[in-house]
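Field guide to reading this record: the first block holds the primary sequence, the second block holds the structure written as discrete tokens, and the final block holds curator observations. Each block starts with its own label. This record concerns Amino acid ABC transporter permease, catalogued under organism Intestinibacter bartlettii.

BLOCK 1 — SEQUENCE
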Amino acid sequence: MNLVKNMLPSSVVTLEIFFLTIIFSSILGMFVAFGRMSKFAIIRIPIQVFLLIMRGTPLILQLMFFYFAPYYVFGMTLPRFWAAILAFTLNYSAYIAEIYRSGIESIPVGQYEAATVLGFGKTETFFKIILPQVIKRIIPPMSNELMTLVKDTALAQVIGVAEIFKLAGATMSSQFSTVPLIVAGIFYLVMNTVVERLCFYLEKKLDYYE
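BLOCK 2 — STRUCTURE
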């Protein structure tokens, strides 16, 4: 019981990383997706380079880069927590952007044309007709990304963020016991179970868009 109580503050840090990353990367990912689909090369090509770098290099490397690079360039460092949020946000926005893009491009062109005939403007068409269908279609790949994010929060410990895995490792070393790792594993499993069930519920609620 004391072990669980001691791990609660670190669990809060893990949850903060998870939710802040979801919020920021979901918003940024939408802009990146539209940039990726832009007809203008001056916008599209830099976005493609960004996507290649973020998806083509390890997240653990990005965490270390965003924590240490500001020191060598500007002589200062970001707070460990916010360096982690920055790295997670940029990394996950790249994956989420591609999920958004695939969802948007999967909608038949005929639906845009039909909306125009019915007198809908572009903004109204997107938010009232296209977006609900896109959300329905991207839930499965998004649920995979969210479940991966739950586990990836453990990587924040490489720059010293005191999340649950870092504390579990330190406690295991001091107590010569694997129990802290088991408790941490249960935490991640419970959190991913909640994520999986929420995504399943949302997917069922949107079944009328089939």
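BLOCK 3 — OBSERVATIONS
The chain has a mean pLDDT of 85.
The chain is about 80% helix and 0% strand.
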